[in-house]
Amino acid sequence: MRPFLVLLSILFCGAAEVRLSDRILPLIQDGGGWKTEITIVNLESTAAPFELLMRKAGSGNWSISVAATSVITVEDAYIRGKLAPFGSVTLETTGTSNTLETGHAFLYSLDNIRLGAKAVIRNQEKKVSLTLPLSPEREDRLLIPFDNTGNARASLLWLSETPYTMIDYVVLSQEGKELLKGNFQFDQNTQDLFVLAERFPQLKGIRGLIQMQVSFPNVGIYDELFLTALVVQEDQEGKPTVINSMTTNSWKAQRY
């Protein structure tokens, strides 16, 4: 497996609208030559206190050292601050460990003010930069196109913090033919990143669509639903881009 993080820089073009439910930074890396820069932006004309919760894949809260461009407080895994109207802050992990650690982060607006954010993961030695958007926290049906034809290659990242979330997935060809289906259950490993054609060899040379549906019947009732996903798509020349999920069914909209 050749991880996409050691290839080229990723260009991300995000949606114009930022919603209050957009609060997950789905991939953070620190150590082993890697650092992550996080920029948080106040999108409104009112001062905005915020809280950023760092989480390590499979092991809970992540206490991490950061430097910032303005005054913040760091308490264990929580990073807190207050943004001026239309203000912003940039945080960067220190990357001092020799061991690579991977996780994600949740951004909370304490006064229900819209915040935008992005994470840029960098390795100076490898001259690699990966940019990821702020993603929705609650979606229960997601669709993402992918391309594995020729030299193109797609990697899938999915993330859930709801205990024992079950995802039913179906992969369709461009003609709508079902290529495979199955399910995946999150347990202690809340974050899963893999190359599609390596986990599912039958998808090698295929261009199609992944459909994902939360199937656990009580998810979001006894525990908050947290689910997001994206594809990192490398084209024929190896240039990667981030493809966000297309959602047709929002759990939050169902509940409220």
Molecular structure report:
This protein has 256 residues and is mainly β. 4% of the residues lie in helices and 52% in strands. It has helices at 196-199, 251-255; strands spanning 22-30, 34-42, 48-56, 60-61, 66-68, 73-75, 78-83, 88-93, 101-109, 115-123, 128-133, 135-136, 141-147, 153-160, 166-173, 178-185, 191-195, 207-214, 227-234, 240-244, 246-249. The strands form 4 sheets. Strands 1, 3, 4, 6, 7, 9 and 12 form a 7-stranded antiparallel β-sheet that branches. Strands 5-8-2-10-11 form a 5-stranded antiparallel β-sheet, with no helix packed on it. The longest helix has 5 residues, at 251-255. Residues 1-15 and 251-256 have low confidence and may be disordered.
